[in-house]
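Entry, Tuesday afternoon. Goal for today is a structural model of the target with zinc ion bound, before we commit to ordering more compound. Inputs were pasted exactly as handed over by J.K., no edits. I checked the ligand SMILES twice against the vendor sheet because last time a stereocentre got dropped in transcription.
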Amino acid sequence: MTFRRMVEAVSFSGTGLHTGVPATVRVLPGEVGQGVLLRTGGGEAPLSSCGLSGTGRGTEVLLPGGGSLRTTEHLFAALAGLGIYSATVELDGPEVPCLDGCSAAFARGLAAASRPAGADEMPKGVDLAVPVAVEDETRGAVVAAFPCPELWITYVIRYEERPIGTQMADFRPARDDFLGELAPARTFALASEMDDLRARGLALGGSLENALLVGTEDVQALGGLRFPDEFVRHKILDLLGDLYLLGAPLRGRIAALRSGHTLHCRLVEKLKRAAGTL
Ligand SMILES: [Zn+2]
C-alpha cells in the first residue's frame, strides 16, 4: 500500500445524490499524525470520534457536537484508495456532492493535490487481533474481517435483476490499480425501487449522469457499462469508503456477502471497539 500527503487544498462542488441540494466539500492538507478531521456547520471533530449511520442508502457521519456529513463513501473511498490519512474535510451543505456517481472525479482532484508520503509521514495502521463479523440474517448478508498483513477485500453480490445476477470481485490496494479498476465503477439503483426511494426523500439528485439504472432485463448506463462487473466493483468502492471511517488504514482480510452501508458501519463500529478506540 502506498500513501500520499495533501500538498494543497482541493474543492469539489455539485449536488448531493439523495438530497439533490448543491454543496461544496474541501479537502485541506493536514499535519503529520493529525489524522482525518471533519468540519461542518461550525463543528469540528476527528473522524475516529464520530458516530456512523448506514441506514439511509448511504453513509452518514455524525459529529459528536452536532452536525453531520451525508453520503461520505465515494469521497472517502478516493481518500482510502490514494492512501491519504492526514487531512481536513470541510463540507458546506448537508451532503457530499455526488459528482460522477463514483470516485473517479474525487480521485483525480486528490491525486493532483497530493504527493507520495515520505518514510516519516506514514499513517499508523489498524491491525486485527481476532476475527470480527456482523450479519443480517433476514437479508442473508454478512461481512467478516480476519487478521491479515494487508487489506484484501472479496465481495459477492446476488440480485434477481439479470444485468447484475451473481458477481464476485477481489481488491487488494497494495497490488491492484485503484484509479483504473475501482474508482470509475458507478453507483446503481434498481428501477423497481425508485418510487420507494423517492417517497423516502432519497435519490432526489440521482440521474443517468451519476448512476446506473437497472431493470429486470436491461441496464441504462451512459456510455455503456465500464466493466462487465461494474456493480460489484462499486460495492467494493463503497466498503473501502466505509472502512475509511476507522480514520486509519486497516490491515485485514474482508469477505462481504450481499452487504451494504448498514452492515459496513456496524463492522466499523465493532472494529473500533476491538481496537479500543470507541
Ligand atoms: Zn456507492
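The chain has a mean pLDDT of 95.
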